[in-house]
Give the backbone structure.
Amino acid sequence: MVNKWETVELQVENAYARVTWSHKIQEKQADIYQREYKLLRITDIAASAMTAAGIMTVLFVDQTWIKLVSAIVSFASVFISLYLNYFDLSKLTKLHKETANQLLAIRNKIEILLTEIRIENRSSQEIIDDYKKTIETLNDIYKNAPQTTDKAEKLARNALNEKRDNSFSEDELNTILPGGLKRSKNELDG
């Protein structure tokens, strides 16, 4: 028979996993938009420079192919500018980063709850009450969260499952910890 602590712990662990996934997906979506924005801005700058060079060249050389290339590059520059204005990728990047940060704060709260469950620091009812408040906050975050893409989900899956983006080995953790919290070699070996 499963006791109340195990039931509470299982629920909180599942919430932790869901929030970890959502956080990583939001981070990856922000990364996608940021890369796309940078690429389009660089392309737009290059196209604008090429258009200006083409116009200057037409003043001195009357070649049809230069006029045609300049017109095409100018069209591309206008298209990119309109695309960037319409989709505002920098704003989308910011929204996804903000959502990821909110989810990270919730994940940290859930970690504390898991710690309190494991050490049975408080009553199960106190833990459940905190858990309910945390889930209410999480639901508000999800309601306002910007949409993500399948590509962001795939990148998150790779980061969490294959690259182990969210975890450290004992040696890595010991390297990061400040001096007074480091474990001795004997503690790490077992």
Remarks:
- The mean pLDDT is 86.
- DSSP finds seven helices and no strands in the chain.
- The chain has one domain: 4-189.
